[in-house]
Amino acid sequence: MMFSGKGRDRGPVRAARLAVLTGVAGAAVALPLVTAPGAQAASVGTWEKVAECESSGDWQADTGNGYYGGLQFSESSWKAAGGTKYAPRADQASKEQQIATAEKLLDQQGPGAWACAGEGGLTSGGAPADVDPGGGSGTDSGGSQQSEPAHEPQGGEGDYTVKPGDTLASIATAHDVGLKQLYEDNKSVVGGDEDLILPGQELRVG
């Protein structure tokens, strides 16, 4: 289950996380760096448990609450931990990329950056996650890998590599092609949502 049987709702969870990430609880942010020197990390299994609590394990979560992805990054925390090198927001990055970014945020702020740290068993002394953020694939709502990695071209070689911040509309405009045609030509790569493309995907343009 996502929550214990104590009637806790998401309101206090988000409020606690917001306080840590925005620096309201500045001492709480600084404390792990003082009391637990050295790199901090957690296993993939631990991050999956945290994600199950934070987002029901939906690594592409975007519910309009200001937090994104399986581990519910705010846009500011995603940027601070270097996640924008993978995608503009966490929900647009792969599970592996989100975990790699979470490792950095954990090292910067400690487990207190996640209100679900306790339920997920997240501590400051775990073994590092063994993930490949460069070659990670997208995930479905259950957190499992898609059968076809989203960043690999399907149905022929692509001639344009999606970059962070790209949209199908911006690519269509830049290459003077129709948006509908661009989507149809790359539907096997993009999937069912033309508004969601991921950095690293190879698209056929023109």
Automatic annotation (TrEMBL):
Region (Disordered): 110-166
Record's keyword annotation contains Signal: yes
Sorted UniProt keywords: Hydrolase, Signal
Domain LysM: 158-205
Keyword Plastid: no
SMART domains in the cross-refs: LysM (SM00257)
Family: Belongs to the transglycosylase family. Rpf subfamily.
The protein's name: Transglycosylase
Organism annotation: Streptomyces daqingensis
Lineage: Bacteria, Bacillati, Actinomycetota, Actinomycetes, Kitasatosporales
